[in-house]
Amino acid sequence: MNKQNRGPLVHIVKRAALPWYGAWGIRALAILLALVACALVTTVTTGENPIAVYAAMIDGAFGTARKTWITFQNVAILLCISLAVTPAFRMRFWNIGAEGQTLIGCLATASCMILLADKVPNWLLICVMIVASIVAGAIWGMIPAIFKAKWNTNETLFTLMMNYVATQLVAFFVIYWEVPKGAGKIGIINQSSELGWLPQLGNKYLLSIVVVAIVTVLMYLYLNYSKHGYEIAVVGESERTARYVGIKVEKVIIRTMVVSGAVCGLAGLLLVGGINHTVTTTIVGGRGFTAVMVSWLAKFNPVFMVFTSLLLVFLERGAGEIATDFGLNHSFGDILTGIILFFIIGCEFFINYKISFRKAAGKEE
Q1: Residues 210-233: pLDDT tens digits?
Q2: Which CA distances in Å does 189 have to 92, 112, 119, 327?
Q3: Mean pLDDT confidence for 155-179
Q4: How large is the average pLDDT for residues 324-329?
Q5: CA distances from 139 to 134, 136, 161, 240, 356 (A)
Q6: Of the N and C termini of the chain, which has fewer Cβ atoms inside 10 Å?
C-alpha cells in the first residue's frame, strides 16, 4: 500500500462574510463564556458568590437614578471620541491622538471661560467656546494629516506624540492659572457666576447625551450617505484606486482628520463646559485610547459603537463597585474586566476565520 502525503492536521481558513446576526451571535457566546470564566476566577480566588459580584456590577452602573445618568453621560463622552476617530480609521489613517485632540478642545474651552468671562455676554461666551474648542481640535488633528499627506510620515507615531505635547500644554496653563497660587490646579471655573457653563436640559447630565446622540446620527449619515464618506471608503481600500478615479487623496486625508479633530474638540467642550467646569491633564481619562477599541470592535459602525461604549463603561463602573462592596483591591475588578475584554476581542478571530481539520485519507493499494 502506498501512503498518501498528509497535510497538517489543523489549518485555518478565512470565512466568507458572516451575516450580522451570525457575527453578533458569536460575540454573545463569547460574553457568556467570559462570564463563566469570571465566575470561576471569583470563586477560586476570593470565595465570593459570583452572582453577588455580578449584581454589584449592575448596581454600580444602574443601581440608582443618579448612577444611571452618570453611566449614560460617560457612555456619551466615550462614544463621542470614538465617533471622532472612526472616519480616520475607515480611511486606514491610524489616529491614536484622540486623547490630545480632546485635551486641546478642553484647553480652548477653559481659556475662553477664564479670559472672556467678564468681557462678553454669557450667550456670546458660549458661542465663542463652541467655535474655539471645535477649531482647536480640528487644527490639532490637521497637523499630523498635513505631514502624512505631504511627506508620508507615520501617522501612528505622530498622533501619539501629539498627545504628550497637548498634555504638557495643559499642564503649563493649569500652573499659570492655578487658584490659589501653589495649589497646582485651577479649581471650578466661574463657580459663583457660572459664566460659560453650558445650559442644562432638565438635569446636568442630559445635554451631553442629547448632543452626542445627534452627532451619532450625523456621523452615520456622513460616513454612509455622503460623497465625503464614499471618498473615505475608497481611500481606505486603495489609494491607487482612489487616484485612478480622480479622488485627491491628500485632500481627503487632511479633510478627514479635520473632521476627527473637530469632533474631539466638541467632546472637550462637553467635558469642560458641561460636566467638570475645570481642566486638568487627566480630564479625558484615557478615553482617547479606549475609543480606538470601541471603534474597532464595532467595525467602524456608529450604531454598533453605542452598544460597545455602553459595555465598556458598564465594566468600568462595575469594577469600581466590586472593590467598594466586597472590600477587594480595585485591581480585582480590572482583572474581571480584562477577562471579559479578552473573550470579546478573541471572538473576532472566529468571526473572520474558521478552523478546519484534516479529513481521513483513503487507502490506496
Answers
A1: 999 999 999 999 999 999 999 999
A2: 39, 11, 15, 35
A3: 94
A4: 78
A5: 9, 5, 15, 27, 50
A6: C
